Amino acid sequence: MNDPFEILGIPPSFDVDLPSVERRVRAISSAVHPDRHVGGTPTDRRAALGKAVEVNDAWRVVRDPITRAEALIARASAAPRPAGDAKPDAAFLMETMERREALSEARARRDAPAVARLAAEVAALDAAVSARFAAASREGEARVHDMIGAVAEMRYYRRFLDEVGAIEDDLASTANLP
Amino acid sequence: MMLFDIFDPKAAPRPVGIDLGTTNSLIAWVNDGHPETVTDCDNEALVPSAVSYDERGNVIVGRAALRRAPLYPRETIVSVKRFMGRGASDPETRRLGPWEFVEPKTDDEAKVVRFRVHERIVTPVEVSAEILRALKRNAEDRLQRVGGVVITVPAYFDDAQRQATRDAGRLAGLEVLRLINEPTAAALAYGLDKKQDGLFAVYDLGGGTFDVTLLVLDQGVFQVRATGGDSALGGDDMDRALAARLLEAMGVGDTGWSPEVVRLALDAARSVKHGLTDREAVEIELPKVAGGEVVVTVTRDELDALVRPIVERTGVVCRRALKDAGVTAAQLDGVILVGGSTRVPFVRRYVAELFGREPLADIDPDQVVALGAAVQADLLAGEGAKQDVLLLDVLPLSLGIETMGGVVEKVLARNTTIPAGARQVFTTYADQQTGFELHVVQGERELAADCRSLARFTLKGIPPMPAGLARLEVTFRVDADGLLQVSAKETTTGVEQAVVVKPSYGLDDAQVEQMLLDALDHGEEDLSARRLVESKVEAERVVRATAQALAVDADLLEGDERAAIDAALAAVRAAVDGSNASRVRSAMEALDHATHPWAGRRMNRAVSRAIEGRRLGEVEGAVASAQGVEAHLEAHGHHGDPQ
Fold first, then answer.
1. One of B204, B211, B239, B481 is an active-site residue; which one?
2. Are residues B199 and B304 in contact, defined by beta-carbon separation less than 8 angstroms?
3. Is A82 inside a domain boundary?
4. Is there a contact between A176 and B421 if contact means CB atoms under 8 Å apart?
5. Residue whose C-alpha is closest to residue B177's, from B18, B301, B55
6. Given pLDDT bands bounded at 50, 70 and 90, which one contains residue A122?
């Protein structure tokens, strides 16, 4: 049983109420965490450790939109697909490249407001493609190709936003220097 | 009451918590539901983390050792925690300090710092074990017998530093139940004290380490959201900054330097720092190198200016932790101060400004960690753990594997809840390659060379095949102590080659064992007698636990499992009556094997029950809030107040 939704006992869906799943994870952890089985046999303790690891891993997958999307794709596809079988179209790649250039220019200028503007723009695009993914995933296997396309875009946005994070850290920490 | 405690050799062993600090260490226990620290014969709870070796081979620990420091600076080791799990070439070993280090002759030796003290060579693990032994003796004076121990470590300690701490515990003859993170321990002490759910930040600035932890407290579950820190940043840095200024006043430049003078300046700096906690200025008389004395006045403003760059480094770490946790300072319900260095007024002002609220410091910041550790030890000790409190902690630093070109492929990201596991598949890059070298690293940097190297091992015997065909599955598992185990296997050929690596840091298990033997008076016989007793006690415990499980979950047994378990139980009982430790061990292994599939089914049942219980809880919660609305209407409904 490797399906994270099954492990956590929640319906497989992209739209999950994270706070409620987090409370559920806490409840399960309260039952299976190794600390709850310190008085048990070594076999029990190992089984508890294995279960606790499984639950934590499942939560890690479900909590992150990209891994959650990947898990839904795995459920929807009959056979596992090789990674990267759906490349975003040329127009998308062009846009992404332009935005990256704008970001590195803003960084060079130490222009924090411009960095924030770009981040907001990409966050909005990310929200839109996430909604597209959610809609496709509700139809399951029939639209698995659209799901794969959407998650590929989500990965690009994620990388962009990670980079923004690093730049913001950098600008914040060097701004403090005397 | 203490006066009437009668020595009872059969007294129950008491679980204890230990804060093994950079500057001071403490031991605490839970007395009738309330954690309290153990005090020594001078009624002091704090034991200075100082170990001094005299010329006759005696080991002196604590205040007496500290008193020897000015006279015997090379023979007195303070702040040894800074060296735990660090290599000889680590920048930490080259900072201002009076000690003599042994130049490593081999790569293996270079993995561990070695102090030269008289004719002896000691490692930080041994020095720390001396501190732990002293604490244990103090606790035995009060509690007669010490049982399982929880030792705290800075949240930001890496795997090497954690392993070294665990080894020190073993070397001191302690049964280490668990290593827990200091900020989490502090939160445990506060959480149980205040009984308030919410999101908290723990700001822990000790003598040598800084940690910040963000955690959610929800009905007894303490869940760490993010942690960050710097395991080489603390009050010692403030002392060094101030000592540099004092050395200048004493006329010490490139000449006049000696271990004694450095020690004197560091001690003077510390007392000036302490004095400035409630005063605006402090005067101190110091000897000049050229002879005579000089009176130096240090003001609070001067100290503030000296410590500002050190404290500002903590701000960067706090901001990153907030970001990792996905929260803002405004969402916090409280900020908790831990560690003696948070007494420095500048630190308090800085923290208040950083988080936009006055921090809590009502539990003594020097004691709170040990008190929390005692609570956790009490929770973990005994049979049938208590069900009301649980700590869910995280991995502080990412774990990864070095790939082609020296780039790190992250396998487990920082702030992953532990215990955790992850699997990554690698392949061969050359035709007919039969060996595969794996380099396990820890840290956030992109290049393996910039991260902490934890272990290197080679998976051998891969059948020759074209490049890219072999499937090497590498599994990482981090247990609840935050300690890593790595295993690897080749899966294409069906021939499973598995290696398990527990990263070790210059001191392998055999060496620790040897040190343990050396420490015991009667060496080998003693150890094997102790092993037999320990294995019998453990076997009896397991027999009881199995019987309990059978009473509860016998309906989950399948086929002839019951008969197999009964037979295995009988074999364990028979072995316990004998005096052969290895027979006990093998009977236990057989029992382990017989109960394995059943244990898995029992764990699944525990999960379903937890989910059911939760659903029930949700319904009850909904009913309660509905009642709340009614009560509210009753109380306020008739007023027609537009509020």
1. B204
2. no
3. no
4. no
5. B18
6. very high
* Predicted-complex ipTM score: 0.83
Mean pLDDT over A86-113 rounds to 87
H or E, element range at B218: strand B210-218
The pair of structure tokens assigned to B278 is: 């409630």
Question: Is residue A139 one of the residues assigned to a domain?
Answer: yes
Query: What residue type is assigned to position B72 of the chain?
Result: Y
Q: Which residues of A145-177 are buried (b: 16+ CB within 10 A; e: fewer)?
A: ebbbbbbbbbebbbebeebbeebbeeeebeeee
Spatial contact of B121 and B102, defined as CB atoms under 8 Å apart: yes
Backbone angles phi, psi at B129, to 5 degrees: -60, -35
pLDDT bracket for residue A154 (50, 70, 90): very high
- Give the total number of structural domains in chain A: 2
Closest by Cα among B404, B398, B412, B493 to B452 = B398
CB-based contact B19:B26 (threshold 8 Å): yes
Q: Domains (ranges, CATH) in chain B?
A: 2-234+309-391 (3.30.420.40), 399-508 (2.60.34.10), 520-605 (1.20.1270.10)
What's at B409, amino acid-wise?
A: E
pLDDT of residue B510: 66
Q: Report yes or no: B164 and B84 within 8 Å, Cβ to Cβ.
A: yes
H or E stretch at B273: helix B259-275
Residue type (1 letter), A173 = S
In this prediction, the residues of chain B whose per-residue pLDDT falls under 50 are: 1-5, 383-385, 619-643
How confident is residue A143, by pLDDT bands cut at 50, 70 and 90? confident
User: Would you call B480 and A42 a contact, using CB atoms and an 8 Å cutoff?
Assistant: no
Nearest to B603 among A9, A48, A56 (CB): A48
- Our CA-based measurement puts residue B589 at a distance from the nearest CA of chain A, in whole angstroms, of 9
Indicate if B109 belongs to the active site.
Answer: no
Whether residues A109 and A165 share a domain: the answer is yes
- Residues B531, B582 contacting (CB under 8 angstroms): no
In the Cβ-directed half-sphere of A10, how many Cα atoms lie within 13 Å?
26
Please report, as a single letter, which amino acid is at residue A21: V
Which residue type does A66 have? I
Q: State pLDDT tens for residues B296-322.
A: 999 999 999 999 999 999 998 999 899
pLDDT of A155 higher than 50: yes
Please say if B81 is a catalytic residue.
yes
- Choose among B435, B406, B369, B382: nearest CA to B190: B369
Contact assessment for residue B242 and residue B300, using Cβ atoms and an 8 Å cutoff: no
* 3-state secondary structure (DSSP) of residue B483: coil
Residue B627: what pLDDT? Answer: 39
